[in-house]
């Protein structure tokens, strides 16, 4: 397969993880991309990324600080967008209109309207749109999904996803609503929303949630409460998410809970459960630990299927998502997490904030149709969405 000529737009931390994933593909002779350009408003960031690519690719990508110039000058077939959430739509749309296929870091957009703008542009341009959603692609999540699909836990009933502790360190632009859309419930939570959909295999219908900001500051040194800046995103969320087939997800996250940490992730069915710490736990007391479950899953795969899920034997989930995107560009396959998949995961997260805003349950249909936008109104207005 001829390598796809790829450009990075946004060359910060997550782009670096993508570059390392590309390097791992190269090391395993899966050379599906040639990185031809790196673009960032901070030239130093683009230069650093380009040098990192040169170290394994052999030739250095061109460096740009202006997206329009890059699209006009570089021979780019696809872009990997790793910018602030607030810039996803402003970068993706010009790329799509220029005839370039797009992989965009999660979440798809900073609001539902932003996500819809991107999806509409992809349809209009008839280009590939994929969302960089890596969690589901790990061997651990693939194995759990395999066990669920085999019926090992019976019919899914309740899904508990609870992460409670304290983390008050600064997190850059992700601490601010107009840059990130929200705090961890959106930035990290969209991974979890995708996992809910992936493992349950059904659609979310309704959300009732409460969000809180107990801690208005983040710190350079949280233990000493030194080097503070004021933030405007949540540090706690508690939600019930109703899915089809009477499945209920209880989703709790809190980053403002000092003392004892509490973490529990488990999907219960009619015959047993998948516990993210223990593994597959059956009614009769049988426990198949996570390592054994992965081994059993890997052993069940035909070589062709194994190569598709873990190209070249690579299990780095970001590398796998990149290979999936390359196949969509070159072979015309549908990305596993396309624009619509990303849109629906985004909707679950934003439904939490809209429910909390109105102190009322909200339907996912309303969220996806952009009919409920109390929380999102400020973002849309200020960013001109």
Description:
The protein is α/β, with parallel strands linked by helices. It has two domains: 155 residues, Rossmann fold, CATH 3.40.50.720; 175 residues, Dihydrodipicolinate Reductase, domain 2 (2-Layer Sandwich). Helices cover 41% and strands 24% of the residues. Strands 16-15-14-13-7-12-11-8-17 form a nine-stranded mixed β-sheet. Strand 15 and strand 16 form a beta hairpin. Helix 1 packs across helix 12. It is globular and about 60 Å long. The two termini are 39 Å apart. The model has no long low-confidence stretch (mean pLDDT 97).
Briefly characterize the structure.
The protein has 385 residues and is α/β, with parallel strands linked by helices.
What distinguishing features does this structure have?
385 residues, alpha/beta, Rossmann fold, Dihydrodipicolinate Reductase, domain 2, 2 domains, 6-stranded parallel sheet, 41% helix, globular
- Count of helical regions: 15
Taking the alpha carbons of the first and last residues, their distance comes to 39 Å
Number of structurally distinct domains: 2
Which fold name corresponds to the CATH topology of the largest domain?
Dihydrodipicolinate Reductase, domain 2
Count the beta strands.
17
Let me know the average pLDDT: 97
CATH architecture of the largest domain: 2-Layer Sandwich
Our estimate of the beta-strand percent is: 15-25%
Low-confidence parts lasting 5 or more residues at pLDDT below 50? none
CATH homologous superfamily placement of the largest domain: Dihydrodipicolinate Reductase, domain 2
The percent range for helix content is 40-55%
**What spatial form do the alpha-carbon principal axes imply?**
globular
Strand order of the largest sheet: 16-15-14-13-7-12-11-8-17
CATH class of the largest domain: Alpha Beta
Radius of gyration: 21 Å
Q: Strand pairing plus helix content: what structural class?
A: alpha/beta
């Amino acid at each position: 397969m001829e390598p796809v000529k790829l450009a990075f737009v946004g060359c910060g931390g997550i782009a670096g993880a993508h570059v390392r994933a590309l390097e791992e593909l190269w090391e395993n002779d899966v050379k599906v991309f040639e990185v031809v350009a790196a673009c960032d408003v901070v030239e130093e960031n683009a230069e650093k990324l380009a040098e990192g690519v040169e170290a394994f690719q052999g030739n250095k990508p061109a460096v740009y600080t202006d997206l329009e110039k890059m699209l006009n000058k570089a021979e780019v077939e696809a872009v990997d967008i790793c910018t602030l959430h607030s810039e996803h739509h402003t970068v993706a749309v010009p790329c799509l209109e220029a005839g370039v296929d797009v992989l965009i870091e999660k979440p798809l957009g900073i609001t539902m309207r932003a996500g819809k703008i991107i999806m509409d542009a992809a349809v209009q341009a008839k280009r590939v749109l994929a969302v960089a959603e890596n969690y589901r692609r790990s061997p651990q999540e693939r194995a759990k999904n395999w066990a669920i699909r085999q019926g090992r836990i019976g019919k899914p009933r309740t899904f508990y996803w609870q992460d409670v502790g304290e983390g008050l360190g600064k997190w850059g632009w992700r601490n601010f609503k107009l840059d990130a859309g929200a705090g961890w419930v959106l930035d990290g939570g969209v991974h979890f929303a995708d996992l809910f959909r992936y493992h349950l295999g059904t659609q979310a219908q309704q959300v009732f949630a409460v969000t809180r900001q107990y801690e208005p500051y983040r710190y350079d040194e949280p233990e000493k409460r030194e080097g503070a800046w004021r933030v405007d995103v949540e540090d706690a969320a508690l939600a019930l998410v109703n899915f089809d087939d009477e499945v209920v997800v209880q989703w709790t996250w809190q980053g403002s809970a000092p003392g004892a940490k509490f973490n529990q992730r488990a999907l219960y069915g009619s015959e047993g459960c998948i516990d993210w710490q223990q593994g597959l736990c059956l009614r009769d007391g049988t426990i198949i630990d996570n390592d054994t479950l992965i081994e059993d899953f890997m052993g069940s795969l035909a070589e062709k299927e194994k190569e598709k899920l873990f190209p070249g034997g690579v299990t780095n989930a970001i590398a796998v998502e990149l290979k999936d995107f390359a196949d969509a560009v070159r072979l015309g396959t549908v990305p596993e997490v396309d624009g619509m998949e990303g849109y629906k995961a985004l909707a679950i997260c934003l439904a939490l904030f809209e429910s909390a805003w109105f102190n009322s349950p909200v339907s996912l249909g309303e969220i996806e149709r952009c009919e409920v936008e109390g929380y999102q109104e400020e973002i849309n207005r200020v960013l001109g969405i």
